[in-house]
Write a structure and sequence with these properties.
Layout (H helix, E strand, L loop, with lengths): L2 H9 L25 E11 L9 H20 L2 E11 L3 H18 L2 E9 L5 E11 L14 E5 L4 H9 L9 H9 L5 H9 L6 E3 L4 H12 L1 E6 L10 H4 L2 H4 L8 E5 L4 H11 L3 E9 L6 E4 L17
Parallel strand pairs: 2-3, 7-10
Antiparallel strand pairs: 1-4, 2-4, 5-8, 5-9, 6-8, 7-9
The structure holds adenosine-5'-diphosphate (ADP) and magnesium ion.
The site of adenosine-5'-diphosphate has 12 residues, from helix 1, strand 2 and strand 3.
Length: 320
């Protein structure tokens, strides 16, 4: 299929005819802003055999790409609105159809639209990229650098489920009836858009990050940027089921990536309000520790249930 046919057939319907997309018929997209608004922008690139396998198919690949991008917007507290797509065209028609379907399912759920992109031929090695745009009131976005000493540390959802799903997909482990839950966590993460917007709206947090490289690694980013030390109770870290840690070391669970949950800080006085948000949104939010003034370079202290320090070696997945 020719490039323009592909764009017309599969990508134009994803614009929902919004004006920003200019019908994919001009050189640029165009985003209007109100005076008191800011755009927040994030980009992700995924390459075959590193971030996805071609055999996963277009639906899963597109879904995860867009969902993980949405998770970056969640980490800012903004409302996601538009995205642009970098697409490597291949000759597998079914792949193209399913890729567009994956995007459609996710964008309908989060009420966002495609506004442009670029298409190239790269049939031997696929890669895809999304740039996503969110809108937020000026100076309201959640920032890694804005946690404060004595703030509580919260995390949404469960940690390690996506890693369990990855191991299941590689036939390395089996959780029987829970396999589906873990596989879904791996392929279809749940970006915490609503939670982040609720935190911003109610001034309950200044600082958040989404867990993409691993709970420890991403928490460390907050510590580095806010110049704080984190004290974490290992047994408070939320797991889907206790038995996951009998098969996978807890230290692996908290240093594996792709959870796409939110770690955020909040003032102690707002503990009840945070619990109310969890109830209102019907999600799990767990208090896992607190920040204190940084005293040493090792910026996360892990405690066991007897408050004894736990030694650990690695923070998480590192991009080499
Ligand atoms: P240029 O030659 O300037 O790069 P193109 O001819 O590639 O422009 O693109 C024409 C139009 O189609 C543009 O509006 C562009 O945003 C849109 N477009 C191209 N590829 C994609 C894609 N993968 N997803 C969405 N829109 C696309
Ligand atoms: Mg182009």
């Amino acid at each position: 299929m020719k490039e323009f046919d592909l764009i017309n057939k599969y990508f134009k319907p994803l614009t929902n005819n919004i004006s920003a997309a200019q019908n994919l018929a001009d050189d640029c997209a165009k985003i209007s802003l109100k005076k008191d608004e800011e755009l927040v922008i994030s980009k992700d690139v995924m390459i075959e055999d590193v971030h996805f396998l071609r055999k996963d198919g277009g639906y899963k690949i597109a879904s995860k790409l867009l969902l993980s991008n949405l998770s970056d917007i969640a980490a800012s507290g903004a409302k996601p609105v538009y995205y642009m797509l970098g697409y490597s065209k291949n000759n597998d028609e079914i792949f193209n159809v399913e890729f567009a379907q994956g995007l459609k399912t996710v964008q309908d759920k989060f009420k966002i639209s495609l506004i442009g992109g670029d298409t190239i031929n790269s049939p031997d090695r696929l890669f895809f990229s999304i740039t996503i745009f969110g809108i937020i009131k000026k100076n309201k976005s959640l920032l890694r650098k804005d946690a404060k000493a004595d703030d509580l540390i919260y995390v949404s959802g469960d940690i390690g489920s996506a890693y369990a799903g990855l191991l299941i997909s590689q036939n390395k482990i089996n959780f029987e009836e829970d396999n589906k839950h873990y596989l879904d966590s791996h392929y279809f993460p749940n970006p915490q858009i609503k939670l982040a917007q609720e935190l911003v709206k109610n001034n309950l947090s200044k600082c958040a990050i989404d867990v993409s490289d691993g709970f420890l690694a991403d928490l460390k980013h907050i510590c580095d940027e806010s110049n704080l030390e984190a004290i974490i109770s290992l047994n408070q870290i939320p797991l889907y089921k206790k038995n996951i840690s009998t098969k996978i070391d807890i230290l692996d669970l908290i240093s594996a990536g792709d959870d796409y949950q939110l770690i955020f800080s909040a003032n102690k006085k707002d503990r009840k309000k945070i619990n109310d948000v969890a109830k209102k949104l019907k999600i799990k939010i767990s208090e896992v520790g607190y920040f204190k003034k940084a005293q040493n370079i090792h910026r996360i202290t892990l405690l066991d249930k007897n408050n004894k320090k736990i030694n650990y070696k690695k923070y998480g997945y590192e991009h080499r």
